[in-house]
Amino acid sequence: MLELKDLTYQVEENNETLTIIDHLDLTIDDGKFIVITGPNGGGKSTLAKLIMGVKELTSGQMIFDGEDITECSITDRARKGISFAFQQPVHFKGIKVLDLLRLATGKNISVNTACEYLSKVGLCAKEYIDREVNSSLSGGELKRIEIATVLARGTKFSIFDEPEAGIDIWSFQNLIQVFENIRKTVKGTVLIISHQERILNIADEIIVIENGKVKKHGPKDEILPELLGTADAVNRACSKMS
Amino acid sequence: MAQEKTYIEDIERTLYDIKNVDKSKYKSQSGLTEDIIRDISARKNDPEWMLEFRLKSLEVYNQLSLPNWGPDLSELNMDEIVTYVQPDAKMTGSWDEVPEDIKDTFDRLGIPEAEQTSLAGVGAQYDSEVVYHSIQEDLVKQGVIYTDMETALHEHEEIVRDHFMKLVPPKDHKFAALHGAVWSGGSFVYVPEGVHVEIPLQSYFRLNAAGAGQFEHTLIIVEKNASLHFIEGCSAPKYNVTNLHAGCVELFVNDGARLRYSTIENWSRNMMNLNTKRAVVGKDGVIEWVSGSFGSHVSMLYPCSVLKGENAKCEFTGVTFASKGQNLDTGASVIHCAPHTSANISTRTISKAGGKATYRSAVKVTKNAPYAKCSVNCESLMLDDISRSDTLPTMDIEGDEADIGHEATIGRISDEAIFYLMSRGISEDEARSMIVRGFVEPIAKELPLEYAVEMNNLVNIELEGTMG
């Protein structure tokens, strides 16, 4: 279980203090498939990065499985079982897809095992395993490779920050299938930051973050209709204006 | 789960810093005078022409100024440098005959061991003289000559006379002139036409005496359609006075021949390394330079390839690692003198802890070299905010239809890359070292790892535990 208590994250910009996360409280139970959504600039991605430790809290406390991880480094959090899928895997010269997967597992896994992870994200493994991680791979391919590395880690708590960002519609269709598979097979907690209805649709719970606070948090069946209703209302209003 | 643990730290120098008591048989006076030159020449039993050559070089030295570009050389005071230090040892072909302290030094550096396992011949120089030289018998039977320069000067005088400082004339620059005046030691290699030396030869230059200079001369001639891999290593213990290295390397790669010249330079941090290396390459010939510059206080080193014959090729691969107190000015130059010549220069420089690394290159395509191709790629990585990295390429293209490319990047390790690796359970230090290793990997794989024992200490990769 992850408990976020009174989290605040502020940044200084042009001599002004901006509050991105504002005294946020949230509890995420084990084994849930959770989607965080909300308007742009509401603090969703920041929250994901705070959980991983990529950004440092201004104040507040984080408890993971009963242990205070507030002061833990990214490395320590990773070792305690939190994973984070970046928008793209890191590029450095010479690193191959297989290396990324070995890095993720911390083991010298066999090519066959690595291929299994790639298959889970819909990549024809043999074609990719020896490829260098660079711009010869498309955005969609890179994203799926990154997701495969998080699956390979097999941790208790996996975070995916807007996995749909920056990919074309064709890759998006594949991506949705990947998350539908993850939904069925992964046992740990999965936390996805997303705006996509199809991803929201497979959630156990939906959390809406707005102005740095939790605006709504509840089962999908309860939250999703509200969100869609809002969207419908906006659409209707827009169509009247035109 | 076992974790891989890696660090990249400063170069571990303990191994190199072990000093022997100075038991030299003879030392010239410090400074540079005609009397000193005559004395060195007499002690070396030079032929008359070589004495004249030395004296002319001294004249040139006195006429030339220090370079008005590059690192500051004002710390170098030639009046304090001892140019000739004769060790108390004769050149031999048996390690048993090498004095104990000198033999122990080369043992620590792993040279006799490498000779047993992976080299076809070894030369070992201690201060100003070569103390050991060997070559496998089957190469001798094929006509390969590998010996010290002094022996070559007497036993193969005509070849030496025809080639010695013809590629790097004393007038080239002040330190070439200095070299011409006081050179001592070094290796001579001759590979006859069509002979392929399959296993590398290695010469190792060790400077033990404080305040001394080392001025070895390496002359390699690879005849038509022959091939050779030559490895050069060098190191010295650290003193609090300035030492000077002004060696000279001349490589003659004839038509259809191939030479790979690998250097792992790890001089101590009180060394001024002002070295000159040049190769001339005939038709269809190939010169491959692999150069690792890790040591010295100041380095100026720009191996030059003169592509003289049609379709001649040059491959230059270099890595430079400048840390605290180091100003390493390295690079490469290529002169295209014939049609369809091609060159590929690829370098990596790393600077940390206030070190300064400069990559300097010069590409010249003459009118006689249509369809020349040259690709330069230099990448620099600064590991902190107090280090410096510069890239200074020059290109002078006169030939028609030239295809020239230059690509340079200077960067720092991105936070995102560090965070990424940390999110995989790797510590911050380990993450940095992995990125540096990845950065030098394309170069490191070209270095003769299996032969140069000190490579492990150069980019100090300390592995504890195993993966999986």
UniProtKB/TrEMBL annotation, chain A:
Tree of life domain: Bacteria
Single GO MF descriptor: ATP binding
Alphabetical UniProt keywords: ATP-binding, Nucleotide-binding, Transport
InterPro entries: AAA+_ATPase (IPR003593), ABC_AA/LPS_Transport (IPR051120), ABC_transporter-like_ATP-bd (IPR003439), ABC_transporter-like_CS (IPR017871), P-loop_NTPase (IPR027417)
Ranges for domain ABC transporter: 2-236
GO cellular component: plasma membrane
Gene3D superfamilies: P-loop containing nucleotide triphosphate hydrolases
Protein name, entry field: ABC transporter ATP-binding protein
Organism per entry: Anaerovibrio lipolyticus
Organism classification: Bacteria, Bacillati, Bacillota, Negativicutes, Selenomonadales
Automatic annotation (TrEMBL), chain B:
GO biological process: iron-sulfur cluster assembly
The SUF system FeS cluster assembly SufBD N-terminal domain, residue ranges: 45-202
Chain ranges of the SUF system FeS cluster assembly SufBD core domain: 205-439
Family: Belongs to the iron-sulfur cluster assembly SufBD family.
Name recorded for this polypeptide: Fe-S cluster assembly protein SufB
Pfam families tied to this protein: SUFBD_core, SufBD_N
Organism: Anaerovibrio lipolyticus DSM 3074
